[in-house]
Design brief:
Rossmann fold, 17 helices, 481 residues, 3 domains, 17 strands, alpha/beta, binds adenosine-5'-triphosphate, 7-stranded mixed β-sheet
Length: 481
C-alpha cells in the first residue's frame, strides 16, 4: 500500500511538472522553439498518455497547408453557443458574420463515435486591436492541436481528416458568391456578383411543376456516376417558353441559387463567328449554367438554307449559325467540362427551329404561363406576407377568367405597403381586362395556359426507349398559372 502511494505521488508530481513546463513553453517561448519543445514533450510523455495529438500548422515549408485552411473552415461551422469564448467577426465583403476559435479555447467534435478535442494555439499571446479597430486574427500565426484517443489514429487519418477536407469544400461552395458572366466584349466574359434573391419558394409557379423541376435538378446533380456509366456528358438542357413577364429570367436565377451554379448569360448578337463562340463556351467553368435568352431572336432561325450554304461557302464558313452552336454544345464542349445546365428561353416556341426541339436536345420543355390562383398566393405571400384576405376569392375568380402575367400582378402588389390598397388596385386591373375583353382566357387565342407541359426524356428516367421514342409529353396539372 505504501509503495502504491509512493508511485502515485511520483506520477502526480511528474504530471504537475509536465503541465507547468507545458504552460511555460506555451506562454514564454518563441513560436519556432515552441514547436521543437512540443514535439520533444510528446516523444517523452506520449508513451504514458492514452491520447494522441496531431499538430496542423498553417504552412508546411513554402506551401500553405490545405488541411489547416480546411480545418479553419470546418471549425467555423462547429462553434457552439455553449463554448465559453469564441470569436465573432463581420465579413465586410459578404456582409455576414463568421465564427472562429480563439486561442486555447477547446472545441469538442464527434465523428463515427470518436471524440475529438480541437485547440487553436496562437503565436500571439495578446490579441491586439489594429488601426481599423478589428482584433488581429490569432489563427494567422498559430496552429491547431487535434487530440483523440490513441486507438483511433487510423480512423482519424483515414476518415476524419478526409471528412474535414470534404466538408470544408462543401461549406466554401455554399458560402461562395455566385457570379454572373456576360459576353459584352466579343471575345471574353466579364463578371459581376449575382445578387438576384429569387428562390423556388418565391417563384410563382404551379406547385406540382415546381416539385417536378426540383426533383429533376436534384437527380441531375446526384448522378455523376450514372452519366459516366452511360457514356453521356454530364449536362442537362431546359427550354423555358411563355409570354413576357411570366418569370423565365426569375426562374433562371432561382435555379442558379438552388444549384449554387454561376450563370453565363450569352448574348449571341454580340458574337459573329463560330470560332469566337467556341472560345467563349470553352472558357466556361464547371458547375455553371449557360443561358441564352430569347433564342428565337438571337440567330436567324428561319434561314436554314443560308446556314447550309454557308457551310459550303468558305468565306461564310465561320459565320455564327444555329448548327454551329448546337453541334458545339453537343460535341466538343460537352467533353471540356461537367455539371453544366443549358437554358434557352423564348416567348415564341413555335418560332423555334425544329433542330432545337429535336429529341435529345433540350431535356425539359417548361411552359411559364399566366398567373393563376396558386401563383397569386405565392406572390401575395412574398410581397405582403399574408395567406388569407377577404378579397382573395374575387381576385382568384378573375384570374381564372383573364390573362394577367405574374409580372403584372407583382407590379400591382408592389404599389402600396397597405395590402388592402394593393389588392384593390389589382382587382381593378383584372376587372378592366375582363371588361375590355382583352386577354380573356379560353378565347381560343392560346390555350397553353390551360395546362403545364413538361417534356422529359425517357432515358433519363431509366426506361428502355427506341431512338424515336426519346421524349414524352407529360401533362403536369391543370391551369394554375
Ligand atoms: N413566376 C414568377 N414568380 C415570381 N415573380 C415573377 C414571376 N414572373 C414574373 N415575376 C416578376 O416580374 C418581373 C419580370 O419577370 P421576368 O423578367 O422573370 O419575366 P420573363 O418571363 O423573363 O420576361 P421576358 O420574357 O420579357 O424576359 C420579375 O422581376 C418578378 O418580379
Amino acid at each position: 500500500m505504501e509503495s502504491i502511494k509512493k508511485y502515485l505521488g511520483i506520477a502526480a508530481s511528474i504530471a504537475a511538472s509536465a503541465m507547468l513546463a507545458r504552460t511555460i513553453v506555451n506562454e514564454y517561448l518563441p513560436n519556432e522553439l515552441r514547436i521543437i519543445v512540443h514535439s520533444a514533450f510528446n516523444k517523452l510523455f506520449g508513451r504514458f498518455s492514452t491520447n494522441q495529438t496531431i499538430v496542423i500548422q498553417k504552412t508546411e515549408g513554402l506551401t500553405s497547408n490545405k488541411l489547416y485552411e480546411a480545418s479553419s473552415t470546418y471549425l467555423c461551422n462547429r462553434i457552439s453557443p455553449n463554448m465559453r469564448r469564441f470569436r465573432v467577426s463581420k465579413n465586410e465583403n459578404k456582409n455576414s458574420i463568421t465564427f472562429s476559435l480563439v486561442d486555447r479555447e477547446e472545441l469538442i467534435d464527434a465523428f463515427q463515435g470518436v471524440e475529438y478535442k480541437w485547440q487553436l494555439i496562437s503565436k500571439q499571446k495578446n490579441e491586439r486591436m489594429n488601426r481599423d479597430g478589428d482584433f488581429s486574427l490569432a489563427s494567422e500565426d498559430g496552429w491547431y492541436e487535434l487530440t483523440f484517443h490513441k486507438k483511433y489514429k487510423d480512423v482519424t487519418l483515414d476518415s476524419y481528416l478526409p471528412h474535414i477536407l470534404e466538408k470544408a469544400k462543401e461549406i466554401k461552395a455554399a458560402n461562395r458568391r455566385l457570379k454572373l458572366y456576360m459576353n459584352e466584349h466579343e471575345y471574353c466574359w466579364s463578371q459581376i456578383d449575382l445578387q438576384h434573391p429569387a428562390t423556388f419558394e418565391t417563384l410563382a409557379m404551379e406547385a406540382d411543376l415546381k416539385k417536378t423541376i426540383l426533383e429533376d435538378l436534384t437527380r441531375f446533380i446526384e448522378r455523376k456516376e450514372y452519366y459516366k456509366k452511360i457514356g453521356k456528358a454530364w449536362k442537362r438542357g431546359y427550354l423555358l417558353f411563355g409570354p413576357p413577364g411570366t418569370g423565365k429570367s426569375t426562374f433562371v436565377s432561382a435555379m442558379a441559387n438552388y444549384l449554387r451554379f454561376d450563370i453565363y448569360d450569352l448574348n449571341l448578337k454580340e458574337v459573329r463567328k463560330n470560332s469566337v463562340l467556341k472560345r467563349l463556351l470553352v472558357g466556361m467553368k464547371n458547375k455553371s449554367m449557360l443561358v441564352i435568352e430569347d433564342i428565337d431572336c438571337s440567330i436567324d432561325f428561319k434561314n436554314r438554307e443560308k446556314d447550309k450554304k454557308n457551310q459550303s461557302n468558305q468565306s461564310h464558313h465561320d459565320e455564327i449559325s444555329l448548327s454551329g452552336l448546337l453541334n458545339f454544345i453537343d460535341g466538343l464542349w460537352s467533353t471540356s467540362g461537367e455539371e453544366r445546365i443549358i437554358v434557352f428561353t423564348t416567348n415564341y416556341k413555335e418560332k423555334l427551329d425544329p433542330a432545337l426541339l429535336r429529341p435529345g436536345r433540350m431535356d425539359m420543355h417548361i411552359y411559364m404561363g399566366y398567373c393563376g390562383p396558386n401563383s397569386f398566393r405565392v406572390l401575395v405571400s412574398n410581397y405582403h406576407a399574408i395567406d388569407e384576405h377577404p378579397m382573395f376569392e374575387e381576385i382568384e375568380g378573375l384570374l381564372k377568367e383573364v390573362e394577367a402575367t405574374p409580372a403584372e400582378v407583382a407590379e400591382q402588389l408592389l404599389r402600396s405597403d397597405n395590402v388592402d390598397v394593393a389588392l384593390e388596385g389589382l382587382m381593378q386591373l383584372l376587372q378592366e381586362k375582363r371588361n375590355d375583353g382583352q386577354g380573356n382566357k379560353g378565347n381560343g387565342k392560346d390555350d397553353k395556359d390551360e395546362k403545364l407541359v413538361v417534356v422529359k426524356k425517357k432515358e433519363e428516367e431509366g426506361l428502355e426507349s427506341s431512338a424515336e421514342d426519346h421524349e414524352t409529353e407529360v401533362v403536369i396539372g391543370a391551369v394554375n398559372c
